[in-house]
Amino acid sequence: xxxxxxxxxxxxxxxxxxxxxxxxxxxxxxxxxxxxxxxxxxxxxxxxxxxxxxxxxxxxxxxxxxxxxxxxxxxxxxxxxxxxxxxxxxxxxxxxxxxxxxxxxxxxxxxxxxxxxxxxxxxxxxxxxxxxxxxxxxxxxxxxxxxxxxxxxxxxxxxxxxxxxxxxxxxxxxxxxxxxxxxxxxxxxxxxxxxxxxxxxxxxxxxxxxxxxxxxxxxxxxxxxxxxxxxxxxxxxxxxxxxxxxxxxxxxxxxxxxxxxxxxxxxxxxxxxxxxxxxxxxxxxxxxxxxxxxxxxxxxxxxxxxxxxxxxxxxxxxxxxxxxxxxxxxxxxxxxxxxxxxxxxxxxxxxxxxxxxxxxx
Length: 361
What we know:
Helix content is 41%, strand content 28%. The protein is of the alpha+beta class. It folds into two domains: 9-158, Beta-Lactamase (2-Layer Sandwich), CATH 3.30.450; 170-359, 2-Layer Sandwich (Alpha-Beta Plaits), CATH 3.30.70. The longest helix has 35 residues, at 124-158. It is elongated.
């Protein structure tokens, strides 16, 4: 008669449930709790995975038994050996003397590590169970890493909102969603002249520096960059979790931060004897349609609607009016910040004249 192997609680989790765990935090928390229920006297644990991200090299989740909570550490450094994770090793060393660490997803080359600490040396049975846990964890951790890679790459190239739609399975032409938001459109001045007079690599460096300032400011104040359009940026501060006034105020603060960032950048460019970069920005409040459009087999997420048309046309008035930032009357009616009225102006392709304002100096 064939003997039936009885799995421990931890191994049962890895076989039956771990495939559906959404992230490293939940994986480590659940696995640690199961090991404790199996009688392993843990004081802490750590899970590290490589992160295919433009800035982050590794993500490490750190668990403490006394609180049952997990904190996450991000490693931004680039190293020759991705397995050299001092954050996890120092964490485990600080929580106990009995530490065992494994490479559950195939070895040090992928930067994966699962480690545990106890207040005393692990017994032979505990060490054997932890080795089995590392072996059983390889498949669900590989799947978790693959899902994380996909989500990171989509977010990097499409943005958070579009990536979420793709991950939800929206891969066909659809009308999309109506978004009410404070809209920001910003455009780098003199880009054509810069491109004609400057070596291509230097143009890319300048573009990256500009996008770092404007997009970084947008994200810092809770906005989202929807698209990079040549040397321009379309971003939104959605109305929903915060009201229209808060969204508009956040957009104005982001513009102020971007201007400060560009001033700092231009001081650095002056020391390098290169021309300063200037830009124009327009702000409007309204609704837009954010949807999947294109051909049947080549799609793109695009914002359309009267509000998008107005904010892009309004930005075109910055140079004629001698302003860096212009605000529509609709936006001005909601913000709590003081603005200077500049009168009503016709916008190309827009039927009604637009009341235009500028921030106070």
